[in-house]
Amino acid sequence: MNDQNHSEEVSLIAKHLSGETTSTEEEALRRWITLSSANEQTYLKFKRIYEVSGKMYEPTKYDSLGIDVEKEWNHFVSGVEQKGKTIRMEPQPKSNTWLRIAAVLLLLIASGIVINYFVSQGGEQVYQTAENSQEITLPDRSSVFLNRNSTLTVSNSFADKNREVKLLGEAFFEVTPDAQRPFIIELDNANVRVLGTSFNVQNLENQNEIEVVVETGVVQLAPKELNQSLELRAGQRGTFRRKEKQLVSTENTDANFLSWKTKNMVFSNTSLKSVVETLRSTYGVEIIISAEVSDECEVTVTFENQPLEAVLKVLQSTLSLTYKREGSKIEITGAGC
User: Fold this and answer.
1) Could you tell me how far CA 180 lies from the centroid of its own chain?
2) How far apart are the first and last CA of the chain?
């Protein structure tokens, strides 16, 4: 598959959403999605179309207007092909999913709406990631590095009024200075307010703690339920514990807090357990340490933007351990160290 022409990919995505793909097609689609952030965004936008099409596609409505969705889609496809492009997303009469997606795409095209790498809904731009991270440039030229499985929501009035965004998940922000317009990040239970700085925010579902680590500048962490806030400077970590309603400021001692973004990791007499925790968050994989592996195993090594396989081989050689992969799961075994 190639990144420029998405005709085959669109067909596979539609088949995937309707549950009609073979195991070979599923693997081909998975590999294509992981090739680039652009591919991932293409998949996410069609998935979103599929999700909203359940609300937008009403067969009786189209029937009452005398519209044959399948016929109109084929007419649109033939018109595009005459212009030198190829689209193979041909609706299959037996699959309601194909008709739903085609109907909504036609509606969007007829309305002059262009679907970009973001999903636009309710006057907001919603950026969503799945298995890969993504860099986003905001209208004020601030940069956001959105981690896997995260969502950033940006109001369409962002550039005109207050610079406000919402975050679910994890992201690293490099905020363009603007003393007249503070940059505000709304989280589930707190707000982060800055003027111009760089910092990491972690607001994960099903986790008790909201964390902010400041790399440069000054950041304010203000829980919504407390009448207090923290002013954090470079090298500091702010933590809000939701259940306990506690706000804590400490020095950041985790040299790898940005490893998910940089793939750079530093370990100095670090326990294997801690190393594995870092690898999980860095590469987004499930790693299990088998019971026979010694708790006394320690690692001193530095990695700079290395793929997971290379990291695992170094650990295997250094600690005399072995590892095996079963799908997306990795198990570390052996009695080395």
Assistant:
1) 30
2) 44
CATH assignment of 119-251? Answer: 2.60.120.1440
Q: Helix-strand-coil percent breakdown of the chain, rounded to 5?
A: 30, 30, 35
Provide the CATH topology of domain 259-333: Phage tail protein beta-alpha-beta fold (3.55.50)
Residue 169 contacts residue 147 (beta carbons within 8 Å): yes
C-alpha–C-alpha distance, residues 230 and 213, integer Å: 12
Residue 149 CB neighbour total at 10 angstroms: 17
220 phi/psi in degrees, rounded to 5: -110, 125
Spatial contact of 184 and 157, defined as CB atoms under 8 Å apart: no
What is residue 119's predicted lDDT score, i.e. its pLDDT?
45
Task: List the chain domain ranges.
Answer: 7-110, 119-251, 259-333
The vertex-198 CA angle with 132 and 232, nearest 5°, equals 120
Which three-class secondary structure state does DSSP give residue 73?
Answer: helix
Measured CA to CA, the distance from residue 184 to residue 73 in angstroms comes to: 43
Tokens of 227: 């009448």
Q: Please, are residues 57 and 22 in contact by the beta-carbon 8 Å criterion?
A: no
> Does pTM top 0.90 for this prediction?
no
Provide the token pair at 260: 């998910």
Q: What's the pLDDT band for 22 if we cut at 50, 70, 90?
A: confident
Q: In angstroms, rounded to a whole number, what is the distance separating the alpha carbons of residues 90 and 71?
A: 10
User: Please, are residues 323 and 333 in contact by the beta-carbon 8 Å criterion?
Assistant: yes
Nearest Cα to 156, choosing from 121, 194, 203, 116?
A: 121
Using DSSP, how many helices (H) and how many strands (E) does the chain show? 9, 19
Which of residues 12 and 211 earns the better pLDDT score? 211
d(CA 321, CA 335): 7
Look at residue 266 and tell me whether its pLDDT is greater than 50.
yes
Q: How many residues does the chain have?
A: 337
Distance CA 67, CA 50 (A): 20
